[in-house]
């Protein structure tokens, strides 16, 4: 007996591009978008924050104030930046190591009390100073 397949069309309503369907899970935007459900059933939102990195930071440096997002649970915090001469790209929260040492390292965190994303930055050769960083937040709301 040969296999038969059936296709069924399902209405997405007006939520296909923002209503939490699987089509939205890979949308990255500077506008807040719905990207899924958290383990407690709350909606997960995603927003990309674009900013510039400073020179080396000895302590914590504020990247963005996102207190207006009313974050309850920060599910994920990640992003990317590229060297000013566009040779190397880094994913944020990781280190880029060469045999002769670390050229750049970033560690980011969110402060629940004041709603600010901070980062600590090591930039030995200066090639990331002032580079553009795209930080992706995925979170539930209060």
From TrEMBL:
It comes from the Bacteria. This is Uncharacterized protein. It comes from Lacrimispora amygdalina. The lineage of its organism: Bacteria, Bacillati, Bacillota, Clostridia, Lachnospirales.
């Amino acid at each position: 007996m040969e296999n038969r397949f059936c296709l069924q069309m399902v209405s997405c309503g007006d939520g296909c591009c923002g209503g939490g369907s699987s089509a939205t899970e890979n949308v990255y935007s500077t506008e807040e978008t719905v990207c899924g459900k958290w383990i407690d059933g709350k909606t997960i939102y995603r927003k990309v924050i674009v900013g510039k990195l400073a020179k080396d930071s000895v302590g914590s440096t504020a990247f963005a104030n996102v207190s207006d997002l009313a974050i309850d649970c920060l599910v994920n915090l990640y992003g990317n930046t590229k060297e000013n001469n566009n040779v190397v790209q880094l994913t944020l929260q990781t280190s880029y190591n060469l045999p002769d040492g670390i050229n750049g390292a970033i560690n980011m965190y969110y402060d629940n009390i004041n709603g600010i994303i901070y980062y600590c930055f090591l930039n030995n050769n200066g090639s990331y100073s002032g580079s553009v960083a795209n930080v992706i937040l995925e979170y539930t709301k209060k």
